[in-house]
Amino acid sequence: MNTPRIQLFREQTTAAEFDHPRPDRLVNGNPQRTTWNHFTNRSGEVFAGVWASEVGSWRIEMGETEDEYFYVIEGSGAIIEENGERRTFAAGDAVIIPAGFKGIFEVSTTLKKHYVIIERQVSK
């Protein structure tokens, strides 16, 4: 068993993963998104890393047991709730997207963020 170690994001050599929003979720553009997932806990419930995106927007749907915290380190954007309420964010802002949230994620200027996603396991 490996001894748990402190991890500094700047020291990680995680390979980048690239994707685009699914076509059925696209609202504007077709932004390339890049993820460097630096940490997954042993139970597979917590993920943390760095995420970046080009300008564009797409529909998002958080799972019923999936919460995300992120801290914007570059760029700006908005999250638009189903009722039309627009919440903007920029470098220096911390944001929580709660489980079950549905809306639109919009990147206004090239965005980079640190993220932590928690996907709670549901007992059956």
Q: Nutshell version of this structure?
A:
This protein is an all-beta fold.
How would you describe what is shown here?
The chain has a single domain (16-119), classed as Jelly Rolls (Sandwich). Helix content is 0%, strand content 57%. The protein has no helices and 9 strands. The protein is an all-beta fold. The chain is globular. The two termini are 29 Å apart. Strands 1, 2, 3, 4, 5, 6, 7, 8 and 9 form a 9-stranded antiparallel β-sheet that branches. The protein has strands at residues 17-19, 26-28, 33-40, 46-53, 56-61, 66-81, 86-90, 94-97, 102-119.
Report mean pLDDT, rounded to a whole number. 95
**What structural category characterises the helix and strand content?**
mainly beta
Kindly provide the name of the CATH class: Mainly Beta
The gross shape turns out to be: globular
Tell me the CATH superfamily. Answer: Jelly Rolls
**Major beta sheet summary:** 9 strands, antiparallel
Secondary-structure element order, N to C: EEEEEEEEE
Distance between the termini: 29 Å
> How many β strands by DSSP?
9
The CATH architecture classification is: Sandwich
Amount of beta strand: over 45%
Alpha-carbon Rg, integer: 15 Å
Low confidence ranges: none
Q: How many helical stretches?
A: 0
Question: How many structural domains are formed by the residues?
Answer: 1
